[in-house]
């Protein structure tokens, strides 16, 4: 969700305004999520829990900087306390060891996934 919020602001304005930009999250491109779900559908039975993620975390600030570079724009990032969540977890990383035993692994690197996502929004933002 934060990725689309950042991209929309990149396309529509001169500033990215977010809450706390220091928390780290595990971002994964949708194609890798779908491949993970397909593997689970075809290779598991019953009920169990699996994490699907990149296995590495990136700060929201880092995400913004990568997207600004992809957009080739000179845009400032503003962290507004009023937009911050009161109980934000500082770092979240998926432990994907269980699903990796089934043969799954992420294939789309963060920069590549962000570029593809940015390009989609750029082509479709006026329709949203």
Question: Could you explain how this protein is built, in words?
Answer:
- By secondary structure, this protein is mainly alpha-helical.
- The protein has one domain (2-127): NAD(P)-binding Rossmann-like Domain (Rossmann fold, 3-Layer(aba) Sandwich).
- It is built from 5 helices and 4 strands.
- The strands form 2 sheets. The protein has a two-stranded parallel sheet with strand order 1-4.
- The longest helix has 15 residues, at 110-124.
- The radius of gyration is 16 Å and the shape is globular.
- The protein starts with a helix and ends with a helix.
- The mean pLDDT is 93.
Give the secondary structure arrangement, pairings included.
Elements: H1 2-12, E1 15-18, E2 24-25, H2 30-43, E3 58-59, H3 60-71, E4 76-79, H4 97-100, H5 110-124
Parallel strand pairs: 1-4
Antiparallel strand pairs: 2-3
Helix pairs in contact: 1-3, 1-5, 3-5
């Amino acid at each position: 969700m934060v990725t689309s919020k950042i991209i929309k602001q990149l396309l529509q304005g001169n500033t990215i305004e977010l809450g706390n930009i220091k928390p780290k999250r595990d971002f994964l491109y949708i194609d890798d999520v779908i491949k993970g779900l397909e593997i689970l559908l075809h290779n598991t039975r019953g009920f169990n829990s699996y994490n699907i993620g990149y296995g590495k975390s990136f700060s929201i600030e880092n995400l913004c900087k990568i997207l600004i570079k992809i957009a080739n724009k000179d845009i400032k990032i503003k962290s507004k306390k009023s937009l911050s969540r009161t109980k934000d977890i500082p770092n979240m990383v998926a432990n994907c060891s269980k699903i990796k035993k089934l043969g799954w692994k992420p294939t789309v690197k963060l920069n590549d996934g962000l570029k593809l996502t940015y390009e989609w929004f750029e082509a479709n933002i006026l329709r949203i």
